[in-house]
């Protein structure tokens, strides 16, 4: 390296090197919406300050290492606990950012029983009342982050920070043929539903909404993508039986579990994404679909109503109402130009309001506020 090259290199930022100031936990092996959020946030957060991560392999782990090798540390749970024996070099407590019940319990043991110098930040997406025991746990957190106004109703004083997505990862096809692998299974127009195959996710509503529509639109294919666990196999078999009785087996494609890295590809394949659960805490699939250029039809649960702009980027329908879903889908199928326009406007809305950077900015403000409150309490 020449002297000139060295002179042009900025000095390391102390906040982004060495000792993790924030430890992010993901103590569940099976991939979920929480895992997706953490994975997307890791490289962004590691680019802003030193963080530690405790949990399974996620795509964001390697991305964080690549983006900020000096600021990102993969920790075992034992290593994270040992690290938390002491505060940061400047005396600040470490922040443990937790998202599950067991993680809250672990944090409380460390902070209140073992007297570790840590603070606890908990993110909640739930939009229903909690049990007294869970309310007690959540009430012991130093700060609560709610992902929507609906979730914040249960926690007065919570910070509201909606989830975001990587809008470069989830994006429309840039040009014709900008898709990996084979062409779509059949038909130039595809309608997709993605998530676990189980009753709560409303797969039956999707199927029953499409059974009367597909015979009238022979160029349309329905795609069902998601893991079906053994307990839910009878539910899936019942739906497949309904499809066979209607003679439409060749119009439904059951993809099975889709690896997280392949999800953007599937959103690019479909023109319309349906999100019709009976209950949803937040509903990241709608944002992923909008960022990918899909028109979205979603039920009135979770945070869908704050994501989808009615009549502009898609439609919001009542829960458990397959005739309403049929009606919304028919509007889009009969007007491809409207469907395409909604996809474009949805992309714009996702980029403006629901990027992963926006979520990371909000979390940074929460962390800084926790440390400021600690400093104020000492003065």
From TrEMBL:
Pfam families membership: Glycos_transf_1 (PF00534)
Family, per entry: Belongs to the glycosyltransferase group 1 family. Glycosyltransferase 4 subfamily.
InterPro entries given in the database record: Glyco_trans_1
Molecular function terms from GO: glycosyltransferase activity
Name of this chain's protein: Glycosyltransferase family 1 protein
PANTHER family: COLANIC ACID BIOSYNTHESIS GLYCOSYLTRANSFERASE WCAL-RELATED, GLYCOSYLTRANSFERASE
Keywords on record: Glycosyltransferase, Transferase
SUPFAM superfamilies referenced in this protein's UniProt entry, alphabetically: UDP-Glycosyltransferase/glycogen phosphorylase
Start and end residues of each Glycosyl transferase family domain: 185-348
Keyword Transferase included in the entry's annotation: yes
